[in-house]
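Continuing the batch. This is chain 6 of the set; chains 1 through 5 are on the previous pages. Same settings as before, nothing changed between runs. Recording input and output for traceability.
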Amino acid sequence: MWPAFSPGIQKRTRLAEKEVAEAREKEEHEEEKGEGEDVSLPRAHFRLGFRPWDNRFQPRAPAAGTRGLVQQLLTPFLARFLTVNASIVAAMRAFSSTQFRGTKAMPTRNLEAVDILEALESKLAYIPGGCDREGRPLIVVNVPSELQPTTKPRLEALIAYFLSIFSEETKRNGLVLIVDARRGAWRVARSCIRLSTILLGTSAASVIVVRPDGFWDKRVDSCTKSHKEGEPTYLTLTRLQFHVDFTQLPYELGGSKPYDHVDWIQRRVKMEDYTKDAANLVAKMTNLHQRLITLDGFRISESDDDLESYWGMNSELTSRARYVLQSGRNLISSMSRESTKDTLDGTIKIYELIDSIELKQLDIENSWSEMERNLDTARIIGDLEKGVSCVTDWILGPADAMLNSCCQVGFDVSSSEELRRRHEELELECRETYGRYAELLHKIDNLPSTRLSEDLKSQRDFMDFVCRSFANRLERRRNVLITSQRFFRLVSQYFDKTSEVFDRLVMGNRTHDFSQAGANLLKLEQSQGILETLERELVKEGEKLSDILSMPVKDALGRDVHVDYGEDIVNVRDILDATNARKNIFNDSVELQKLSLKQIALIYTYESDAKQAVKWLNDLYDVLLKNHMEIGCNAMEIQLQKEEHQSFQETAKGTYDYGCQLINGAQVLRLSCRLPLESNATLFSKLRQAWKQLRSVSQEQLTRLRVCAVFHRSVEDHCSKLYDLIKTVASLRRSWRPEDLAAEARAKAEIVIILDNREKLLLEVGRMVRLGRLLRTRLKEPLCHQRQVRQ
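Output for chain 6:
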């Protein structure tokens, strides 16, 4: 279906209708002449939308009002016109494929600006620094008016150079190629488009061809078929802004972005000169680093001239590196105001070179330090061998002899402390040798494996074995003395502590202080727990000491040394047996005392709770007299008071039973402990008296509540019956008729019955009134005599 014209061209379309009508007659005349004649399109066809410059030649649709007429005019011409156009397109493609045949291609090595300076200055292609609306950088190719032999080599060199400028990430994201074909012929433009697209390859995300403006290009909408992926987009300069913002386009393409091509070339030359200098410096530094690494076999016998040559080379490269690093930072600072993608990618490369130089500086410094350490290593080895021999001789001589003279562990605290003091003096004498041994070991271990000779390694291993063996024996002797001292100290503490606890908490608690029984029991249990822990530690240390003394002893060379600890082992066993016997006697006495204290504590607790029960009963009695003496005004209220009073009685009864159980339990415990029972009997008497007075008053109040409840129910029943009689009489009065004799007889009979019932009811009411008066008199009597008796 043909799309409609925009409203702005309706008028121009109607103006063209007259020319179309005139052309129709001419076209019919040409059809009669035959198909072989040349076809020249009238001017009206171009006005209706034909674009011969475009290889697709798609006609634009006329307005809706003239659609039928235009289709009738175009139908006979369209077939012949497309046939001619196809032959033209085929010829142009053949010409494009052979256009650059025989031209020499540029080499594929890494190009620099100085190598293609003439091509850059020609501005056949350039990077304006802008981006499309998706942020992809632009590459602009200016199609020349005529093809020159240097056009293809220059274009190839420029495209290859531009690709080397951008980073791999930028190329992966894609580049936008803009071909400015406004000044060149179509055959030249098509060749440039094809060559540029091939050179860019997959890096070309979009290809935009700016063609010359046609007569209808600014007046009608394009009716060409939709753009396909990978095909160039042909548009005019005015439509270029739909793809690229005008602020990202240079002045040549109708944009507002400033671009100085000469300044861009100079900046690229500076960047590439710096890159070349930095790369050369990195190569020289790498060479020096490799030469320093190969000096692992360097010895003191090397001449001083070689060292001076390396030192001079290092100083020269260090000075050069400082200059190059500063130049790189200055260059980056000068380009900091540029935000174009090619400048940013170049800045990243400079940063990478700076990082490489700094890393190489660090590598050279490390290698130089390593070489200096290697020179010092050979001088150190001789001193180490002398030190190892000195330490080994002292351990196998005086130190071993001094340790062989110490073979006692003591028999009490004071003797074990004296032996430990002497052993610490021996350790102080060995400390200096230990320090020397550790220093030698540290120095030898820090030597490189290539510098460590087999002789020094054997001496080091033998010294390490001798020192470790002697240290183990010295540590074993120290552990024996520490265990012995701790064992005798625990024995002394255990015997002293058991005597103290027995005198203070067992023999000193024969008097029966009921209030302190619980506290004394807690103290006794805590003391017993402490003594049990102390006894377990004592036995553990004794067995440990016995096991250590039974183990064999070896000297610094690993040979067995005969040391007789038989008497010490027997002494330890005797002390353990004595401790066990004392523990059994002490535990029996403590358990008996604990049982007595538990019973006394229970007696005190039971009787204290029983006293509390007596106090609760007295409090309940006071509450009863104060808050439970009122009588309700009706049967329901009295029923609630009676239920509450019964609950109160149950609480009091439970309190009394609880107190009796406590007193009985305390009495049984007193009999078991053979304690007097007078206080227990007195307490039971108080409990019983409190319960008796509470129960009597409570029962009296319950009786009053019951009588009052009966009275109120009877009164309510009598009142109900009186109301019924009144209602019966009133109904008879309303239904009475003087003229009805039968009804009058029945009424009289009913009145006789009513009067009989009234007399009976009045007798009951009289008795109830007398009962109420007696009850009121009884309720006015207070229950204060119970309080007076209790006081």
